[in-house]
Design goal:
There is one protein chain. The chain is built from six helices and six strands; from the N terminus they run H-E-H-E-E-H-E-E-E-H-H-H. By secondary structure, the protein is α/β, with parallel strands linked by helices. A six-stranded mixed sheet has the order 1-2-3-4-5-6. It starts with 6 loop residues before the first helix and ends with a helix.
């Protein structure tokens, strides 16, 4: 993409560097086109780049793909290309990847439905769902998943405005599922560990 379109990434990585964040997984929605430029920008800030894709059908979150290696990125792109060319809707479950990790939201998959490369990604506001869930029995299938959609205070208000335009509706009429959450901001590693302090194993 043109350098100007990478400005949000540049701002993100510079902010991450200042906060002492050592690695970031960049997972655009239904898109991987910026990944090579993102790797370059990450390397400039000495941040470990991890690439993948967040898969959604409309506003509905399905799963997140994380490439293990170059072959994994090819698998993600093949999956994406097939659905784009054939105009197919995305499935609720990922295909059987060989070199891709897959994260589902809590409740989207039971433990016995998860393949070896599949995990439950737990976002900060979903931690309470774990206390009385089956996932307690097998915490090695849980991963702390902290979305970083915004880097500046004004970004969320701009996001709301753009989402209202996209849905052709008033700001006051937007539904929760049509918006990112305002707390989806970069946080330093110490804050991250504090949020998940009751589940240190899912950070490891």
């Amino acid at each position: 993409p043109p350098r100007s379109t990478l400005f949000p990434y540049t701002t993100l990585f510079r902010s991450a560097k200042k906060l002492g964040i050592p690695a970031l997984a960049v997972t655009d929605i239904n898109n991987t086109s910026a990944c090579f430029d993102v790797v370059k920008l990450c390397n400039e800030q000495r941040i470990k780049p991890i690439v993948g894709m967040e898969c959604r059908e409309g506003d509905h979150y399905l799963f997140t793909c994380i490439a293990k290696n170059h072959e994994g990125l090819r698998e993600i792109n093949d999956f994406l290309t097939e659905h784009n060319l054939e105009k197919k809707t995305f499935p609720s479950s990922a295909p059987e990847f060989s070199n891709v990790f897959v994260l589902y939201a809590p409740g989207a998959r039971s433990l016995n439905q998860l393949r070896e490369n599949e995990y439950i990604g737990v976002r900060p506001w979903e931690i309470n769902k774990l206390y009385a869930s089956e996932y307690q029995r097998q915490r090695d299938k849980l991963i702390a998943q902290y979305p970083a959609t915004f880097t500046r205070v004004g970004d969320y208000e701009l996001h709301k405005l753009l989402r209202a335009v996209d849905h052709n509706t008033l700001l006051s009429m937007l539904k929760p599922g049509e918006l990112a959450r305002s707390e989806e901001c970069l946080v330093p590693p110490d804050t991250f560990r504090k949020i998940y302090r009751d589940y240190p194993d899912i950070i490891r």
